Amino acid sequence: LSMAVAAEFRDYLGDFIEHYAQLGPSSPEQLAQAAGPPGEDGAGPGPRRALKSEFLVRENRKYYLDLKENQRGRFLRIRQTVNRGPGGPGGFPGGPPGLQSGQTIALPAQGLIEFRDALAKLIDDYGGEEDELGGPGGGGPGGGGLYGELPEGTSITVDSKRFFFDVGCNKYGVFLRVSEVKPSYRNAITVPYKAWAKFGGAFCRYAEEMRDIQERQRDKLYDRRAGPPGPGSGSGAGDDSDGDDVDDD
To answer: Would you say residue 238 lies in a domain?
Structure first.
C-alpha cells in the first residue's frame, strides 16, 4: 500500500465513519436480514448486502471497501487484488487470467476512527511531501517519483511468520520497509537506501559465521559420539619387544 493510496484510504475511511454514525442501531429485523438466506450448500448464510461500498484502482491493484453487517455487528471489509497482466503468475482457479487472489481484512466498525487516526499518523510520519518526488512510489508509469521506477515488493514465509519487503520513497529518499507478520501481531522497520549495502553485508557475514559455527558443532557432536580410541586400537599396541629374540650363540 503506497502512501498516496494510504492517503486516499484515510479520506475514504472518513466517509465510512460518517455513514456509519448516521445508521443508528440495528433492529432485530435488520440483523435477521443481514444474516441472509442459507448459502447454496446449506452450510451457512448466503451473501450479505453491503451498507456502503467503494473501490479504488491504482496501476495493477484494486482495493474494495464494503461496510457490512452480520449478527455480530457492523464491520468494514477491505480487499486488495493484484492484476499481473495476461498470462501473469498468481492466477487463482475460476478467476480471470492474470488476476491474483488478494488479501482481505475486516475491521469492526467501532474501531474505524482509531484505525483512521493510526493511518493518518503513519502518513504524517513516513509519507512526507510526496509531490516533491512526483508522487508515492509514484511519478510515472513505473512509479518511484523522481526515481522513475522502484522494485516490486515481495514476501517470504518462515514457519508461522511472513516477512514482507516493500520499497517506497518520500522526501527523504528511497527506503525499504521490512514487515514481520504473525497471526497475533505485526512489526516493521524502515531501512534507508544508503544503508541497504551495509545491511546486506551484515546479513551475509552473519550467515557465513553461523554456517561455520554449525559445522564446528556438528564436528564436536560427531567426535563425542565416536568416543575416545579403545585399548589396542593404536599402532603397534601390545608389542613387548621391538623385534624377534635372537640367540647370542
So the answer is: no
